[in-house]
Amino acid sequence: MTLERRLISYANPGPLWQYTSTRNPVWTDSEDGSSVLFLEVPGFKRENLSVSLLEDRVTVTGKRNDREHISFIRALPRYSNPDSLAATLEDGILTLRVQRQTPREVQIEVQ
């Protein structure tokens, strides 16, 4: 067992997967003009997961039983269209996808 795993298990005796499986997922750009984030959630069912959006923050929460739960927060990528956020669950992988929008410059008239 690595030192990192020992420290994690000492700090919280819960299941180790809930601390390591969500470690540092980042938004990646896909070819279809969207940004995608993959999050490992082994053993969770759709009805036990919740994805919410508040301003530019995506929150994923889930609970399998009294001791095993997950909570994860990530900011949306820059220039994202929050109305296009979609989540799918397949084979223990939660996929979040959001469409990017082209930034636009708006001219403001000085009064």
Uncertain runs: 4-22
| Shape by Cα distribution | elongated
> Order of helices and strands, N to C?
HHEEEEEEE
CATH class: Mainly Beta
Number of domains: 1
**C-alpha termini separation:** 66 Å
CATH structural architecture = Sandwich
Q: For the residues shown, what is the average pLDDT?
A: 78
Biggest sheet statistics: 4 strands, antiparallel
Rg from C-alpha positions?
A: 18 Å
Number of strands: 7
CATH fold field value: Immunoglobulin-like
Please give the order of strands in the largest beta sheet: 1-2-7-6
Could you describe the 3D structure shown?
The protein has 111 residues and is mainly β. It has one domain (3-99): Immunoglobulin-like. The protein is built from two helices and seven strands; from the N terminus they run ααβββββββ. The strands form two sheets. A four-stranded antiparallel β-sheet has the order 1-2-7-6, with no helix packed on it. The protein has a three-stranded antiparallel β-sheet with strand order 3-4-5, with no helix packed on it. Strand 3 (49-54) and strand 4 (57-63) form a beta hairpin. The longest helix is centred in the N-terminal third of the chain and has 9 residues, at 3-11.
Task: Please tag this protein with its features.
single chain, 111 residues, mainly beta, Immunoglobulin-like, four-stranded antiparallel sheet, 37% strand, elongated
